[in-house]
Automatic annotation (TrEMBL):
Region (Disordered): 184-203
Source species taxonomy: Eukaryota, Viridiplantae, Chlorophyta, core chlorophytes, Chlorophyceae
SUPFAM superfamilies to which the protein is assigned, alphabetical: Glucocorticoid receptor-like (DNA-binding domain) (SSF57716), P-loop containing nucleoside triphosphate hydrolases (SSF52540)
Molecular-function GO terms, alphabetical: ATP binding; metal ion binding; thymidine kinase activity
Species per Swiss-Prot/TrEMBL record: Chlamydomonas incerta
Protein name: Thymidine kinase
Length: 203
């Protein structure tokens, strides 16, 4: 989180629109943090969108004529979209759309989150983004944040939130602070693991 996924997605949308391509933005209906019908970056940039639980419902939401005229579909918070893989294949390979898909590749436990990882084998291009580690910056250092540390008490996988619930962290701080939270004592050990950066896939 806090890696600029939504900002980058909006940039891609504006590039498509500037080239004359008809574009629609979709986000998961679960995400109502800033607005119900807008995609909103953490610094307040807003773009009108269609909130959906299933991407396959976009045709019905837009209507046949509008869907047929749409050339580019941009999807934000895609980890919450239940039919993501199936709908992306349908939209790109059957309906001829270009899709920009932004979401988290892993959850706060560094496990798979939704169907994002299933798009890697389908995508024409994958762009991984990272922010800055919150705790390194507090220490006067600048380190990329490849992981998300949950600071809220909830342990459920789907918890929509911002800085009150999550912090972007480097590997060192993820390992140390996760163990402090789980076991009550820090450790200097580090382990090899797959990084779970914020991820954006374009199909």
């Amino acid at each position: 989180m806090f890696a600029g996924k939504t900002t980058r997605l909006i940039e891609r949308v504006r590039e498509a629109e500037a080239s004359g391509r008809r574009t629609v933005v979709v986000k998961s209906a679960v995400d109502t943090r800033y607005a119900v019908d807008h995609v909103v970056t953490h610094d307040g940039v807003r773009v009108l969108c269609v909130p959906l639980s299933r991407l396959g419902d976009l045709r019905a939401a837009l209507g046949e004529a509008e869907y047929a005229a749409t050339q580019v579909v941009a999807v934000d918070e895609a980890q919450f979209i239940g039919d993501l893989r199936e709908a992306v294949v349908q939209a790109t390979e059957a309906d001829g759309k270009t899709l920009f898909v932004a979401g988290l590749s892993g959850d706060f436990r560094r496990d798979n989150f939704g169907q994002i990882s299933q798009l890697l084998a389908l995508a024409d291009n994958v762009e991984k983004l990272s922010g800055r580690c919150t705790f390194c910056e507090q220490q006067g250092r600048r380190s990329p944040s490849h992981f998300t540390l949950r600071i809220a008490a909830s342990t459920q996988q789907e918890l929509v939130g911002g800085a009150e619930a999550y912090a972007p962290v480097c590997r060192e701080h993820y390992v140390q602070l996760s163990r402090v939270r789980e076991h009550g004592a820090p450790t200097g050990d580090t382990t090899e693991a797959e990084e779970e950066p914020a991820q954006q896939a374009a199909a």
